[in-house]
Amino acid sequence: MGVEERLSLEAVSADTLIACEHVHRYRIAAALCAGLGVVDLACGSGYGSAILRETASSVLGVDNDAATVDMARVTVGADTDIRFEAADAVEFLSRREHDGWDALVCLEGLEHFAEPRRAVEALAELAREGKRLVISLPNSRTFAEENAFHVTDFGFDEATDLFAELGDTTVLYQFLAEGSLIRGEKPGALHAERLLEEHGEPEYANHFIACVNLDDALDSAFPAAQMQLTMGPAYNRHMLGLERANRELWRENARIARGLMAKSDAAAGTALLRVQRELRDRLEEAESRATACEAEAAHLRRILDTPRHVAVERVRDGLMSSGLAYGIIRRLWALVNRR
Fold first, then answer.
1. What residue ranges of the chain have pLDDT lower than 50?
2. Residue 208, Cα to own-chain centre: how many angstroms?
3. pTM score, two decimals?
């Protein structure tokens, strides 16, 4: 499966699992940063900045890719008061003028940074100044994720060590989950019950989310768990369509395979006949040569049983009339003279 460095506005609007988990993280951050001036660091296409703006007093999106920032300005920025800035993350974090915002959100960003150590040091300094931070990391090392855009792969231990440097940190663990939906004719409020909690081992979470200097917000705005679902009844129609398409594919593959096998068998039969004919021709040629050799040997034996001078004349005349090579004449001549 191809890897996307930045989730586009189209991709995040799709009913997919990757869109669900990305949006869910931003909704958690929006709840924690309600009423604050927020920086969305590594904002990408700006979809997360728009989610943050639903609760924040102001949002500044920052990304190092100028083309991506330009696109965010003419899409998300066109309908909101969100500002977007093209800047290197470490350079932005190292600035000293941070009075215009209260919280920084950086979701799935640190693993892409060329200088993650400098970024962590700058984030720790901001945390000491009282800035509130929401930072997420993918559990790439545990799941052996291969992503060419990642400079650093984090696992549970690496994420824990990094978060410990940020000060007063509470860690949230994001898992992928399944659910069952029962609804009536009209959609209503969704009630969810948490089951199988023992499966939520922190070491095997899909993502780690660090919340720094946000204890009050965590106590008041965030319950023990939240879940976001993307599945609904329409998904069943989609699955049935996939199953039908899959059956069609199997039938078509089987038809093609039968055709190829028939062609292969025909080709193999033709090749076998050709080899048999060639072997038969060679055998007949060999038998013909053997018969000729036996006749010639018998003729030579008869010649050698006659007086020498008669034998010599007959051999000479026979060899000369047959057009055999001079070397063969010399050898037969020597054979007769030794007798």
1. 1-3, 231-234, 308-312, 319, 323-326, 339
2. 23
3. 0.65
Alpha-carbon 30 to chain mean position = 32
pLDDT of residue 308: 47
Give percent above pLDDT 70 in the chain.
70
Q: Mind listing the pLDDT tens digit for each residue in 185-236?
A: 776 777 666 665 666 788 989 999 999 999 888 887 665 666 766 544 445 5
Number of domains composing the chain: 2
Question: Which amino acid appears at position 316 of this protein?
Answer: R
Rounded to the nearest integer, the mean pLDDT of the chain is 79
Strand partners, 86: 63
Cβ neighbourhood burial of 211 (10 Å; 0-12, 13-18, 19+): buried
What are 106's strand-pairing partners? Answer: 135
Structural tokens at position 43: 């904002």
Give the pLDDT confidence of 288-327 residue by residue, as tens digits: 777 777 776 666 556 555 554 444 455 555 545 554 444 5
Residue 43 lies in a domain: yes
Q: For residue 177, what are the contacts with CB-CB under 8 A and spacing of at least 6?
A: 227
For residue 59, the one-letter residue type is V
- Does residue 254 sit in helix, strand or coil? helix
CATH number reported for the structural domain that contains residue 144 in this entry? 3.40.50.150
On whether residue 125 sits in a domain, the answer given is yes
Q: Which domain holds residue 79?
A: 9-178+196-229
CA-nearest of 41, 46, 84, 88 to 64 is: 88
Which of 215, 251, 66 has its CA nearest to residue 134? 215
How far is it, in rounded angstroms, from Cα 295 to Cα 300?
9
For 58, 85, 186, 188, the CA distances from 182, given in Å and listed in that order, are 38, 44, 11, 10
48 with 24: CB under 8 angstroms? Answer: no
Handedness of CA 325, 327, 329, 332 (dihedral sign): negative
Looking at residue 264, its pLDDT comes to 59
Tokens of 166: 């940020």
Q: What is the pLDDT of residue 286?
A: 75
Distance CA 51, CA 68 (A): 18
**Measured between alpha carbons, how far is residue 141 from residues 110, 150, 200, 314 in Å?**
14, 11, 18, 96
